[in-house]
Amino acid sequence: MTPSVSIDFISDVVCPWCALGATALEQAIENVAGEVSVELTYKPFELNPNMPAEGEKAVEHLMRKYGRTAEDIAAGKAMQIARGEAIGFKFDLEKRSHFYNTFDAHRLLMWALQEGRQIELKKILLRAYFADGQNPSDHETLVSLAEEAGLDADRAREVLASAAFANEVRELEAFYRQHGINSVPAMILNGRHLVSGSQSVEYYEQMLRQMAKVPAEA
Asked: pTM of the predicted model, to two decimals?
């Protein structure tokens, strides 16, 4: 029997390091296919839960929130772009002009999990924001992206127009913060092993192989 590993990947759709980590993990999962069976679930985390719907300009936001200089931000962008190129993830950080509220995107991802299309939607959301500069708080944008992921557009619109999955998102976010997760990406493997930060494909491969050898808790 192929050993299995479960992964809860805690992240936000406007977090560049989450995009890098998710892309590297996806490649690692492909590389261990046949050796390790991986059950991957994306869990919600909002970098800016109080962000207004219209968002905030990206450079101004980073300077205000983290106290960075324009030079620091430019250097960070260059690093992210280079790391993305190395694993095939495209950043166009000129198009990514704003940070946005992501609560509704997380609600939609919770629904997509029920529909068996969460991983597809997550990849599309990351591409739409970081490569295409789309707004993940805009409902019509989200509906279009859900449809691209193979989900029903009318049902996506209904989910967004309602309070569906709002409590689930808030409860999970509170749970992770209460357990010391204050930055993302963070991964919980088999319900008990924490891996923080964006790592390389090789690191994730090694981690998956090691975790596959650890006996599951009774």
From this structure: 0.95
Q: Which domain holds residue 41?
A: 4-49+102-212
Q: Which residues contact 171 (CB under 8 A, 6 or more apart)?
A: none
- Identify the bridge partners of residue 193 per DSSP, sorted by sequence position: 189
Query: What's the rounded Cα separation, in Å, for the pair 129 and 206?
Result: 30
Can you say whether the dihedral through the CA atoms of 162, 168, 174, 177 is positive or negative?
negative
pLDDT digits 0-9 by tens, 95-146: 999 999 999 999 999 999 999 999 999 999 999 999 999 999 999 999 999 9
Q: How many domains are contained in the chain?
A: 1
Which regions of 45-175 does DSSP assign to beta strands (E)?
56-57, 98-99
Task: Respond yes or no on whether the N-terminal peptide bond of residue 185 is cis (omega within 30° of 0).
Answer: yes
